[in-house]
Amino acid sequence: MSREVHNGPTDETQARGTPYSGDPQGGAGVSQQQLEKLPLDSWHREKGGRMVPFAGYEMPVQYEGIIAEHNWTRTNAGLFDVSHMGQLFIAGRDTDKALEKLLPGDFQFAADMKPKYSLLLDEDGGIIDDLMATRRGDDFYVVVNGATKHGDIQYLSSRLPEVVIDHMREQALLALQGPRAAEVLETVVPGVSELSFMQAAPFQWNGQPLWISRSGYTGEDGFEISVRSSAAAELADAITAHEAVKPIGLGARDSLRLEAGLPLYGHDLDHNVTPVMAGLTFAINKRRRAEGGFAGSDRILAELTNGAPQLRVGFEIDGRQPVREGALVLDDEGNEVGRITSGGFSPTLQRPIAMGYVATALSEVGTALKLEQRGKLFDARIAAMPFVPHRYHRKGAA
């Protein structure tokens, strides 16, 4: 997620907390009259949230500051409002087989209550969106990115007339992330700490049904909680009543996911990028590789065999100045060999980092390249991702 989460895509996180710039697919350029409000809009404002346009909504970019919120999430627990995301209930005859026409995952043999990261593909193998899909018996709960959700629904409906898609507009979505997330949520929703990474289950809280998965888009342990919009503020209050929790905005969500090496739809992923180029081949399991039959499979399977012309890579950059999306990647002769798609200052590592695409021949870790931003050159090297190790909670792990 992104996931835009997932997640929600952010443009760039500024090193010293300067404003979040919004998403070109629904943020910047949208008038205040056109923007929708989150179920927790008043709650964010009461907490001091600085609201900005994003994915067609007014959303909090920060409360006390991006770096402070980033560091708090890394050491405690942060509550994110991701209610702009699209929550879909997909049902119908052979829903699993239907989804396999457009997504490269193995849904026919997917286990119940196990969210799967997948990709909505076009006929050329380009990525329309990245998403999370969870089998719940014969039906699926799917979370798509906020800026793309309406287009996703239209695409799914037109290509899969055999399924029924319910856009769950009555649901809010919260994400509690950080090393103390399980400790906190267990005090509010007993039993939730029994979930392992990429497991989900229904729960009850104060008579309200919840759907909770142990997942997120920060690289930290955490949970995503689907709750009726009418109960969202009360649940948010219950969670933030714990001393370990603070509300966290879009800015820190972006810097966290960048440190985790997680791609952001609309920036690192789009229609011009295939799963192979993006380094997301784990989303194509063995059976699908053997059988194909999904949108764009001819191109994608050929790239799996022969390689893609470009690959998504990480960059470590000399100096202190961040290099932003759109900067050029140059080889030692000054030829353009790629572009930066996400970049910012890493609060954890205390240096600038970035992601982007380069010619496959130059994608090996350690390769020295130059980045050009507004006429200024920066020395950089291909770096392994994630930049900061993931800390997901897996069964059997300490």
The span between the termini is 25 Å
* Percentage of residues in helical conformation: 10-25%
For the residues shown, what is the average pLDDT?
92
Strand order of the biggest β-sheet: 11-12-13-10-4-14
Number of helices: 9
How much beta, percentage-wise? 25-35%
Q: What is the SS-derived class? A: alpha+beta
Using DSSP, what is the number of strands?
20
Shape: globular
Please state the CA-atom Rg, rounded to the nearest Å. Answer: 20 Å
- Summarize the helix and strand pattern as letters: EHEEHEEHEEEHEEHEEEHEHHHEEEEEE
Question: How would you sum up the major sheet?
Answer: 6 strands, mixed
Descriptive account of the structure:
The structure is a single chain. With 398 residues, the chain is of the alpha+beta class. It has 9 helices and 20 strands. The chain has a 6-stranded mixed beta sheet, sandwiched between helices. Strands 15-18-17-16-19-20 form a 6-stranded antiparallel β-barrel. β2 and β3 form a beta hairpin. It is globular. The two termini are 25 Å apart.
Summarize the structure in short.
This protein has 398 residues and is of the alpha+beta class. The chain is built from 9 helices and 20 strands.
